[in-house]
UniProtKB/TrEMBL annotation:
Coiled coil: none annotated. Residues 1-18 form the signal peptide. Residues 46-138, 170-274 form the Cyclophilin-like domain. The keyword Signal applies. The keyword Signal applies. InterPro entries: Cyclophilin-like, Cyclophilin-like_dom_sf. This is Cyclophilin-like domain-containing protein. The lineage of its organism: Bacteria, Pseudomonadati, Thermodesulfobacteriota, Desulfobulbia, Desulfobulbales.
């Protein structure tokens, strides 16, 4: 089935269902919350015509299989003036519980019937059998200018930096919770401000928040799909968020890292906390 036609049919069906739910007064659930895919530490760099785009991959079977085939140099094909697509030598396995595609600019996705991987430089459609592999973290505006062939490779610079990952300890009520930060600019900004002490506030029923002295630069920082143990940054308020329950995504919410030990202490945190760098010995 033509992917454009499939997308239109599915889009109409979703619109109809959404209208029905709206009439019944039911709240909708975002795709991030519904599917709950987790980002991995792996990054892919795609270069063409002097343009470079970097994507952070999800921790899915298909994304791992794609990463294992790199490096590749492949021809690009344009589709609907919205995406550049290419065909990896081996098809990817997409499991039902890992199937998710939002059709948004900056996605790296896989279309199972054709076996192609594609980069969206415009919003498209959340079509049938399209599955997200990763999300852009830099170079999103350069994707449209690509053409001809592309070099697809592992982002080795990121991998080397990730080998000695930044870790921080949050001490509250005499108990320490350790987080491993990602390699984003915002995470590096937070790390550079440590050590620091700050009052901790409860917010909603699944998070704790504190305010670092300086706001964080969110350039190349991935949007969060927050689960229990996620450390995030809410740019509109300038606060760091520690989640002890699942949340999902929200505009302006960016991922900084995830808990590696002491997850059970987060809900009980209170008062003034101390945040410090942890260096591996």
């Amino acid at each position: 089935m033509n992917r454009f036609f499939s997308a239109c049919v599915i889009g109409c069906a979703i619109f109809t269902l959404a209208a029905c739910f709206s009439q019944e007064g039911e709240a909708s659930t975002s795709d991030h919350e519904k599917h709950g895919l987790t980002l991995s530490a792996k990054q892919v760099k795609i270069t063409s015509q002097g343009q470079t785009a970097i994507f952070r991959l999800y921790d899915t079977t298909a994304a791992k299989q794609f990463y294992a085939q790199l490096p590749l140099e492949l021809d690009l094909s344009n589709f609907r003036d919205a995406q550049w697509m290419f065909y990896p030598p081996e098809k990817l396995s997409v499991t039902a519980d890992e199937a998710y595609h939002d059709g948004k600019k900056g996605e790296l996705s896989y279309y199972a019937p054709w076996g192609d991987v594609f980069m969206l430089y415009k919003d498209f459609y959340a079509g049938d059998e399209m599955h997200r592999l990763g999300v852009n973290v830099s170079g999103i505006e350069g994707i449209a200018g690509m053409s001809g062939s592309a070099l697809i490779e592992k982002n080795e610079q990121h991998a080397a930096m990730n080998h000695s990952a930044m870790k921080i300890g949050i001490i509250a009520n005499g108990k320490t919770t350790v987080f491993e930060l990602n390699n984003s600019t915002a995470a590096s900004d937070l790390y550079a401000q440590l050590p620091l002490s700050a009052p901790l506030e409860n917010y909603s029923n699944n998070e704790k928040i504190f305010y670092p002295p300086k706001k964080l630069n969110i350039t190349d920082t991935p949007q969060a799909n927050a689960q229990a143990g996620t450390l995030a940054y809410y740019a509109p308020w300038g606060d760091v968020v520690i989640f002890y329950g699942n949340f999902g995504s929200a505009a302006g919410l960016y991922e900084l890292g995830h808990v590696v030990s002491g997850n059970e202490h987060i809900e009980g945190m209170s008062g003034t906390i101390h945040i410090e760098q942890i260096r591996d010995r």
